[in-house]
Every structure is written in C-alpha cells, then in structure tokens.
Design goal:
- There is one protein chain.
- The protein is of the alpha/beta class.
- Helix content is 41%, strand content 17%.
- The protein has a 6-stranded parallel sheet with strand order 3-2-1-4-5-6, sandwiched between helices.
- Strand 1, helix 1 and strand 2 form a beta-alpha-beta unit.
- The longest helix is centred in the middle third of the chain and has 21 residues.
Amino acid sequence: MKILVTGGAGYIGSVAVEQLIAAGESVVVLDNLCQGHREAVHPHATLVVADLANRPAIDEVMTAHRPDAVMHFASHTLVGESMQQPFLYLGTNVVNGLNLLQSMAEHGVKRFILSSTANLFDRPERMPIDEAERIVPGSPYGESKYLLERMLPWLEKIYGLRYAMLRYFN
C-alpha cells in the first residue's frame, strides 16, 4: 500500500513513517518543514516539500504518487500558542485539512487517519477518558481538530471515506 503522510518530518509523523516502512509500506511524506526536519524523514520515504495551504501542490502529489491512504499529522499543535493566536490555529489547521480532504475526494483516496488530540476534552468527567466522554475543546487548537473530526462522517456518507481519529496526549 502507498501511504501519504502529512507532517511526516515532525515528531509523531516521522515515527509513524518509520513504523510504516518497517511494515513494508511505501511512504510519501508531504511536509513544509516549518516545524519538521528533513533529517527526521526516513531515507526510504519520498519527501515532497510543500504546504497544505497550496491546494495545487496537494493535487500534484495525489496525481504523481497516487496514494491508497493518507495519515494527516501536519498542523500547528501548541495549545498555549493557540490561546494567543486563535486565528492561526482555527484558520490554518482547518483550511489545510479541508484542502487535503477535498483533494483526496477528487482523487478517489478513501482511507484517512486524522491525528487529533485529547484536548477535545477540556475537563473530562472521568478518567481514563473513553469514546463516550463529552467533547468540550479546551483551546482553539482542540477546536480546530474537532472541526476536522466533524467533517469526516459527512465525507464518509457522501464519498465513502473510511477514517479513524487518533486522540492522544503528547
């Protein structure tokens, strides 16, 4: 399977790439390197330096590499910074994710994993947190991830997208 990993030069994305390659998968990394590092990309992965804000660049990657699935790790991720720069998080994370999802739909890519966050649960009512916990984002960062999560059931219904969301603490 060929897998496109956005943010594959960042910490979590690069570990996912390493594991995918160890499992024998073919991996293309799309990263703008603003927070990631070229050296973090596995030598057997193909690196495309591009920004998810550039929709034509995403389409070029989809056309050239024809991924079977996408794992989306690319985003601004600092909760505290999101409280100081909410438009950066609400704008960039959501618009870039939407660009990626729209390109996937237009290129027939139907498998998607979203790197979400446990920041969807500002003050959980119980620990450990499970899928039944009430979602109340704790920051603009958490809200940006929640907005992307809310789009996925619609894309499943309309385009047949199969998806999973990873909600974890860093």
